[in-house]
């Protein structure tokens, strides 16, 4: 890093404006700095390897299920946190979603893994909060969660605290079920000084359930040492749980490439070198068409302008949508009738989070949640069967 100079990755003609970009990245970057998909499509990254999601249900013992959940979780991180960097050369900001924005999609059944469906809704605009549900009904798997971000500066990085969590429910052959609490890592956007922003994960994620406590420690690359995207995951059975498991299991590697067992097991653990599987978007209207608040319909012309470099079109359409949303908020304030969510109901505290979180003494001790109302659109309901 010693021979790298500030702004090296920025084209020479643009270096004079780089400092202005650094100031704007935390608020509203230029349209050329946006990257699709919008935030409402981000939950699809949870299931871009649907065979690993389905494999959780095929595990026979509590320890095998806990390992399957950990393997699936680690395998989602590449899609969630490096996709924009890999495809665009540096980190890009997604389009800001509109309150009530919707996205529906699915992954088809292949090799007996079952069909998996996705529903997301933008449940808050300030702050932006996205709630989602991913379900493989034939396998008895359902993931429900929400996500928001709080950004701050810490020279020379941007720190993004992820707010929210997810709960995975696994129906067991016995008729019972297991629930797993999954918390989100903190993000650090580095490379700003050199004009090539990229995401590094930091601190810990927790995966708690099925009689096990999993801690994923993100090591990453520091300013002077370390390897990018490194992690160490420790899976520990709770006393009286986990069947015959008595010792902790440790996995180490890089979450965007591969990892292996370093204690409690042998051989490779995860590998994400194979291509991911994109979600198939669907319309939520009874006709199968996309409604006006569905992401790809709402942002259709903005996306077209960004893809084709027609920033006049993109800017015009983006301003139109934002002005309509502002007016809608004003009308709601004047009438005293707030926007009604379509698929989720907010809940001030999540009892599953509180019950499972205490096993790792995670903070905060309680957190709000969004309860899915089980009202899948007819088009997705058909895809689930």
Automatic annotation (TrEMBL):
PROSITE patterns: OSBP. GO terms for cellular component: cytosol; membrane. It comes from the Eukaryota. It holds the Pfam family Oxysterol_BP. One of its GO terms (molecular function) is oxysterol binding. InterPro entries: OSBP_sf (IPR037239), Oxysterol-bd (IPR000648), Oxysterol-bd_CS (IPR018494). Belongs to the OSBP family. This is Oxysterol-binding protein. The lineage of its organism: Eukaryota, Fungi, Dikarya, Basidiomycota, Agaricomycotina.
